[in-house]
Design brief:
mainly alpha; about 75% helix; about 0% strand; MetI-like; single chain; MetI-like fold
């Protein structure tokens, strides 16, 4: 007597831990995916369906100038921030822990200060009758006040000051993870301080430089307050143009297209950074 075995139909099981991730996924969809899709929809439907908004942004010389200013300012700010933040991060990594905690607290405290307040403080310092120009003139270094505001110089100074903590934090973590014995071994083998920095310290710190540099560059691309207050009309950046299009001109289609282009560029840069870091790790592992 044969007994027939019945196979139960396969049941779909949720991956382990999915229930815990569900609230976060819902928030991401509601507050990121849906707004981005709405932005994309407006950029191709207003004032009429088509790609005329993107054609206007990419084909007009005035808008091209704004894009150029945005990437120029973001690049200059990122480079200067890396050059200033690296020695500060190295100092924090090698100094005694008690003193490092105090300096680290001062850096963190600057991040908690209101952004608008810090920008207005730089306006006072950088103006023609500000403290910096008066000090330089009193010391006999200059005869006439330097133009430090309403130009690229003022924007760079203000944004570098604001971006420094975001560059220092990942760099400190990377530099503290480097074994000091590697630098001592290089010195014992006859390497000069510059050679030890160029061939050991700098390559080992590149992940921190890449992470902080990407963060600073991406944040600089979309910055609004500091460039608007410290820069001039000839140095308008993309975030200022988007705000002007939407708030003053009520041109939602063109503003949405500009914002979507900025988002695509940001995501592309992030993907490129992940690819470069991943390739470096694979080559290092091999």
């Amino acid at each position: 007597m044969s007994v027939e075995t019945r196979q139960s139909p396969p049941t779909f099981r949720m991956p382990a831990g999915f229930n815990g991730l569900l609230p976060a996924l819902i928030l991401i969809v509601l507050f990121f995916v849906v707004p981005v899709l709405a932005l994309l929809l407006r950029s191709v439907t207003e004032p009429e369906p088509g790609l005329q908004n993107y054609a206007a942004l990419l084909g007009d010389g005035t808008y091209a100038r704004v894009f150029f200013n945005t990437f120029l300012v973001a690049s200059v700010v990122t480079i200067v921030t890396v050059l200033v933040a690296f020695p500060v991060a190295w100092m924090l990594a090698i100094m005694p822990s008690a003193l490092a905690s105090i300096v680290f607290g001062v850096i963190i405290l600057s991040m908690w200060t209101n952004l608008l307040t810090r920008t207005y403080a730089w306006m006072v310092l950088l103006q023609r009758t500000g403290v910096i120009n008066r000090t330089l003139m009193a010391a006999g270094i200059i005869d006439q006040p330097l133009p430090l505001i309403n130009n690229l110089t003022g924007v760079t100074i203000g944004m570098v000051y604001i971006m420094l903590p975001f560059m220092i934090l990942p760099l400190v973590g990377t530099l503290r993870a480097i074994d000091p014995m590697t630098l001592r071994a290089a010195a014992l083998c006859g390497a000069s301080p510059f050679q030890a920095f160029r061939r050991i310290l700098l390559p080992l710190s590149l992940p921190g430089v890449a992470a902080g540099g990407l963060m600073v560059f991406v944040m600089s691309l979309g910055y609004f307050v500091t460039p608007a207050l410290l820069g001039g009309t000839s140095n308008m950046m993309l975030a200022e143009m988007i705000a002007q299009m939407i708030q003053s001109l009520l041109n939602w289609g063109l503003g949405s297209a500009a914002a979507f282009i900025l988002l695509v560029v940001t995501m592309a840069l992030y993907a490129l950074q992940l690819r470069l870091v991943g390739a470096r790790r694979m080559s290092g592992g091999i």
